[in-house]
Amino acid sequence: MSVRPNSLEARDAASQMHPMVNLRQYEKSGGLIIESGEGIYVKDINGKRYIEAMAGLWSVAVGFNEPRLKEAAIRQMDKLPYYHTFSYKSHAPSIELAEKLLQMAPVPMSKVHFTSSGSEANDLTCKMVWYRSNALGKPEKKKIIGREKGYHGVTIASGSITGLARNHECFDLPLDRMKHTSCPSYVHYGKTGETEDAFTQRLLTELEDLILREGPETVAAFWGEPVMGAGGVLIPPAGYWQGVQAILRKYDILLVADEVICGFGRTGKMFGCETLGIEPDVMVVSKQISSSYMPISAILVNDRFYQPIADESARLGVFGHGFTASGHPVASAVALENLKIIEERDLVGNAARLSAHFAERLAHLAKHTLAHSSRSIGLIGALELAPWEGTATGSAAAAIAAAAEEEGVILRSVGEAICFCPPMIITQSQLDDMFDAVGHALDKVAARREERAAEAAE
């Protein structure tokens, strides 16, 4: 693909430095320019409509044109377009949103601190973990354990907790005090002949061995997504989270649950922690908190976490941190209205009710000759592809995602999988449209491969 001179695509390629792309390739080809959205659909500048099967970036719960969110933003813009939460100041939208989140939390939480993205929230949580250790007189207790394939953001600290090589390479990451334990994906890392229970026990033993090797007195916190989204929708086996929590309690290690993708209904319950039986000290939320209509994220902390930090701020005279946009009144007002919509329209229930049909349709795609297996929970899932001989890692999934785009569905390829995370307003018939189109894409790619094989044989 090449861009037309002076087109919007060409202007984009000439002016913007985009994330998560081959920058040189983008200069040549440009990208898909989206102009409008309605419900589960978006349209490009040429008028082609797509099912947005990734809800943007795992995040647009209520669809792409919800008038109540626009109206909430306008009302707040008219009243108070901006104010901060520094220096003993506040405003009603951030107060009401904090109260709402504490009321919604699946385990007792004490305070909420607002930031603007999941990366910022995880980064600040990391800082607060270190601050808390110092407050407790444990300056050596600073190491953080993340997991291979885990994703927690791209700042220096959050990017270091992330366990994806593409977010580390050439950035001088991860930081030395960030450690990583194995990814709990049985389909990817289970050994030949190893049962799922044995796999789980192996990972738990590995985690405890890592803590003992580093020294429990040096390990402050463990970070984990209930279901690992950006790593490829990786669902942990039964007993994994229960075992992890027992080990963390044994060695006095904090648990941070990254609910940025799972939170607000994606797994069929309000939070992934409820679905997986997790009782964290800290929850990080973003994305579906506002359906990404406004950039906002939040850190929910329990009293065990909060009290030493508050005591230390009293000793020092200040909690020396702040972002200009923390608790932004317009973002807070939009998030509040978004959460009301999720509750009033029972979108969590919709995800739960459609979960079986979603899994069934994914399993049917897994029978395709190009596929290996499927996995899902609630309204998030992935289709794992069979290895293609002579094909570079990830290129098979990228080919299918590109073919799906031709068929009018926007997906995301991760490694050898294509991922699905549609808006939570989706209906069963729309799910069928989505999976039918992806089935056509699989057939199209298979036919192209057969044609190339036939040509090579001549």
TrEMBL record:
Cofactor: pyridoxal 5'-phosphate
Cited Gene3D superfamilies: Aspartate Aminotransferase, domain 1, Type I PLP-dependent aspartate aminotransferase-like (Major domain)
Key words, A-Z: Aminotransferase, Pyridoxal phosphate, Transferase
Cited InterPro entries: Aminotrans_3 (IPR005814), Aminotrans_3_PPA_site (IPR049704), PyrdxlP-dep_Trfase (IPR015424), PyrdxlP-dep_Trfase_major (IPR015421), PyrdxlP-dep_Trfase_small (IPR015422)
GO molecular function, one term: adenosylmethionine-8-amino-7-oxononanoate transaminase activity
Example of a GO biological process term: gamma-aminobutyric acid metabolic process
PANTHER family reported for this sequence: ADENOSYLMETHIONINE-8-AMINO-7-OXONONANOATE AMINOTRANSFERASE (PTHR42684)
Family, as annotated: Belongs to the class-III pyridoxal-phosphate-dependent aminotransferase family.
NCBIfam families with a match to the protein in the record: PRK06105.1 (NF004767)
Name used for this protein in its record: Aspartate aminotransferase family protein
